[in-house]
Each structure stands twice: as structure tokens, then as C-alpha cells.
Design goal:
Layout: H1 4-13, E1 26-31, H2 38-45, E2 49-54, H3 60-69, E3 77-82, E4 90-95, H4 99-106, E5 112-116, H5 129-136
Parallel strand pairs: 1-2
Antiparallel strand pairs: 2-5, 3-4, 3-5
Length: about 140
Amino acid sequence: MPGLTSIVSVPQAAGIPVTHRGVSGGLHVANGQGPITTSTRAALGDDAITTVFLMGVAALPRIVEAARAAGAPLERPVAIVERGHTPQQRTTRSTLATVLADAAAAGVANPAVIVIGEVARAGLLLAPAEERERAIR
């Protein structure tokens, strides 16, 4: 789904809510082909903001550099969702520390949506094993 809807729908198709109560208080959207603006740098450095990049695969090194310069922790989660809403959809989960190597190893390619923030953490929406077992009983 191209355009604005892909900002929310592609991450959601991968089980990533771009906002989530107690995890993300806001959403910042950026075009990966454009310059990293002051507001994007501020969002990348803010623990409470989810930043979503469209068309950002080629700019990933620049995005990671901007996030680090903004003070984002190296363990901040990153998810790259390729070919959203197609049978070939694939998600690469990583952190700012390793996303460049992980994306290269996976052969990440466009079209893709990049999500940076705590909502991209693997297992965020999964209940702990004890809670799942209680729910089954």
C-alpha cells in the first residue's frame, strides 16, 4: 500500500503497532530520500517517539548515524518491513547497533518501511509465557 497508509498498515501487518500505550507516545514520519531534518533528529533521540521512514533503505547508514548523533541508545529496536501486504512480506528486526550489518546480511531491498523505536522490539505484543498459560486455562 503506497503513501500515507503504509506508515501504519505495513508495520501493523508485521505485528508492529506504530503507537502503543505505555511504549510510544507519538509518531514521526520521514522520507528517507530527503535530508534528515532537525525534527527527525529530535524524534530519533526521543525514547517516547516512534520514527517511521518511507523509502529509506538506501539512506539507512545516514539514518543510523543521525539516530546515534541524536543520542539514541544502540539497543533501540529497528524493524524493516519489506514488501508489506504481499506474499513476499518479510521483516528484519534488529537494533541501531547492528541494523546495518543485519540489513546487509538479509539483503534488505525496497519497497520497505523502517520503524525505529520501542514498538519495533520483537515480542512486544506477546504476553509472557505465564500469562499465555493462564489465558489457556
